[in-house]
Automatic annotation (TrEMBL):
Its EC number is 2.7.6.2. It catalyses: thiamine + ATP = thiamine diphosphate + AMP + H(+). NCBIfam families: thi_PPkinase. Pathway: Cofactor biosynthesis; thiamine diphosphate biosynthesis; thiamine diphosphate from thiamine: step 1/1. This is Thiamine pyrophosphokinase. Its main location: cytoplasm. GO terms for molecular function: ATP binding; kinase activity; thiamine binding; thiamine diphosphokinase activity.
Amino acid sequence: MIRLGRKSRRGDFEGRKLAKMGPMSHSSTFLLPNLPTDNGPALTYALVILNQRLPRFTPLLWEHAQVHVCADGGANRVFDELPCFFPHDDPSDIRKRYKPYAIKGDMDSIRTDVLDFYRGLGTKIIDESHDQDTTDLHKCVAYILELLNPEHPNLCILATGALGGRFDHEMGNINVICRFPSMPIILLSDDCLIQLLPSTHHHKIHIQSSVEGPHCGLIPIGTAGGRTTTTGLKWNLDKTEMRFGGLVSTSNIVKENIVTVQSESDLLWTISIKKE
């Protein structure tokens, strides 16, 4: 969960750098069975499902999200794999219960039977095969922003299936969160999550120790990282410069309930997700 010191304004999120603002607070409460109701203004969650194996906590994320969008072959995953989470239920009932609001992408991965099934249930089918310059995740993020953000400024996008599989796909998905720096987008797998910490804010990360950690990392992305200072880690940084070919803070350990990060450059924050 991510809360801004002040509400984001409606506008063009892609590529927009915010002026220096107050602290940004982060918490992975979307991994908890119940969302807290006494910790500031509520967030609106949107879930994007990409074409990789569904994490074990997918039904939980689905329940927390207000809208569900499958990126092309992600619909195959929902159709094939979600019934496996409910072995005692009729698969057809589960498929009807977990119906995506929309399927969007270049439609090169989704099976015909899956497409026909969800079309019959009223799912919006948005063919973007004419656009080969953006990834399916990018297309889905842009769609969700247009659909929800004007009415829900406290929006956070969760993306499953964004990690694992082909490395170029992973890097393309990481590029998406860098192209929308002012929109909280969290990439999730069974093992970890990744999100962008923009340099326009100081960051306070509330660790949900029952579901995440202790392993974590801070990764400079795109360019050499400016000076970074942290608290709450086993190996804290003190005005430390990071870059590929030099120091990168991987395999660090969370030691406190709150981790703070101040950096002159954008960083990726990653933390492990605990197995049940």
